[in-house]
Amino acid sequence: MVVFIFDNHLVVYMIERRDVFQAIADPTRRIIISKLSQGPLNITQIGEDLDMSKQAIAKHIKILKECGMIVMNQKGREQVCEAQLTQLDEVTDWVIQSRKLWNQRFEKLNRFLAATKK
Amino acid sequence: MVVFIFDNHLVVYMIERRDVFQAIADPTRRIIISKLSQGPLNITQIGEDLDMSKQAIAKHIKILKECGMIVMNQKGREQVCEAQLTQLDEVTDWVIQSRKLWNQRFEKLNRFLAATKK
DNA sequence: ATTTTGCACAACCAAATGGTTGTCTTTATA
DNA sequence: TATAAAGACAACCATTTGGTTGTGCAAAAT
Question: Which residue among A35, A116, B3, B26 has its CA within the 20 to 30 Å range from the CA of B12?
Answer without folding.
Answer: B26
